[in-house]
Automatic annotation (TrEMBL):
Residue positions binding Mg(2+) 1: D9, E48, D70
Gene3D superfamilies according to UniProt: Ribonuclease H-like superfamily/Ribonuclease H
EC number(s) stated in the UniProt entry for this protein: 3.1.26.4
Enzyme class per UniProt: hydrolase
Cofactor note: Binds 1 Mg(2+) ion per subunit. May bind a second metal ion at a regulatory site, or after substrate binding.
Name the record gives this protein: Ribonuclease H
Amino acid sequence: MQPVIIHTDGGCRPNPGPGGWGAVLRYRDHVREMCGGEAGITSNNRMELTAPIMALEALTRPSLVHLYTDSTYVRNGITKWLAGWERNGWLTAARQPVKNADLWRRLRAACDQHRVEWFWVKGHAGVPDNELADRLAARGLEQALASA
């Protein structure tokens, strides 16, 4: 099975503040660029989570996905921490509510529709689709601010 390759990024200016997210989806010779944002107060972590959610939800059928993120928060959350949070009733090991639980639940549901393999990539290190996802996130932020 040929994987869908997805690169995602998100961020805010300032953090917290208005934010944007971007995603690049590649399947064979097809490329889809996506972006969006929030003009109100959000956070880098919320935008980093929104990008893979939107990308996975855009897929029209169950797929093998190689998902690249420059966010250790997203990668560690989905691959290491999420199962424990679910077992603990969405509380951290310190018995505090999990931040961004709404988005973590939505990401889990999106992942459940596919076979997702997660990869971390260093941001701003010249990886072309990570750089493109970063530019798309900036575009999403600008568009959100322009329409507010």
